[in-house]
Amino acid sequence: MSFQAVMSQVMLGLNNGVFYAMLSLGLAVIFGLLNIVNFVHGALYMLGAYVALLGFTRLGPLVGLPDYQMNFWVALVAAPLVVGALGMAIERTMLRRIRKFDHLYGLLLTFGLALILQGVFTNYFNVSGDPYEGKPEIFNGAVNLGFMFFPKYRIFAILASLAVCFATWFVIERTKLGSYLRAGTENPELVKAFGVNVPLMITLTYGFGVGLAALAGVLAAPIYSVSPVMGSEMIITVFAVVVIGGMGSIMGSIVTGLLLGMVEGFTKVVYAPASSTVIFLIMVIVLLVKPAGLFGKEA
User: Fold this and answer.
1) Per-residue pLDDT tens for 66-100?
2) pTM
3) In a domain? residue 218
4) 3-state per-residue secondary structure call for the chain
5) Which pLDDT tens digit goes with each residue over 41-62?
6) Domain range spanning residue 202?
7) Is 248 a member of any domain?
């Protein structure tokens, strides 16, 4: 087991880890602030990737401009807006009606929505996946890290994801807006007394949370094949990350996602067959020792 092999897999694991972190961050925002177990998160991650793919391959002919292709930078903005708007519609028309009931109702509703979205896209697109070829030319090639040549785009994806994760943490934990969000979930009547439109704030928060999933989908599109099942393949692992970090913990989701991605990569070097289950083994151990998660608070 050489140093080069270990570090190469750890870097690739970090690349997976930033997507775990972004997706689990969106789940943590939605659960921590809205108490919704959002099982449709993976499908919306997939939808974000498809907004980028279809915008690049089919948007031009659809709007009467055969040569137009939505570039990657536009997709980074358009996908979170489109998916965020869909998320807000879901919250206003469906989730708001069951907010007073047990968490199980929200889980079942969002799980059903995930199956519907996946089924619709499976009917029209290749299940094995389609490549996204809209990656900017500036990211062609690789950088010599000393122990490996690492693709420029993967470095960009890591840095961009980290920037988004820590910016989100700062807004929620260190700003006045974040304090309103937290107060609105704990004591909505008090916040309403200060003139804050709490229902609108909840809708926007849900839209922001699913927008993070869509942004992760766009960043992942040039790396992985864009397929209808990419979200379902990711969401179980991401829920494990959220449980390990602590349900609703913003920093827990970020740190745990990054660390578990690297652990998964390291495991591929030590014992490859265990790489697909090591995260769930860690989850079992954490639940037995600290049921609230590494960064969670006991009820």
Assistant:
1) 777 889 999 999 999 999 999 999 999 999 888 77
2) 0.93
3) yes
4) CCHHHHHHHHHHHHHHHHHHHHHHHHHHHHHHHHCCCCCCHHHHHHHHHHHHHHHHHCHHHHCCCCCCCCCHHHHHHHHHHHHHHHHHHHHHHCHHHHCCCCHHHHHHHHHHHHHHHHHHHHHHCCCCCECCCCCCHHHCCEEECCCCEEEHHHHHHHHHHHHHHHHHHHHHHHCHHHHHHHHHHHCHHHHHHCCCCHHHHHHHHHHHHHHHHHHHHHHHCCCCCECCCHHHHHHHHHHHHHHHHCCCCHHHHHHHHHHHHHHHHHHHHHCHHHHHCHHHHHHHHHHHHCCCCCCCCCC
5) 999 999 999 999 999 988 877 7
6) 3-232
7) no
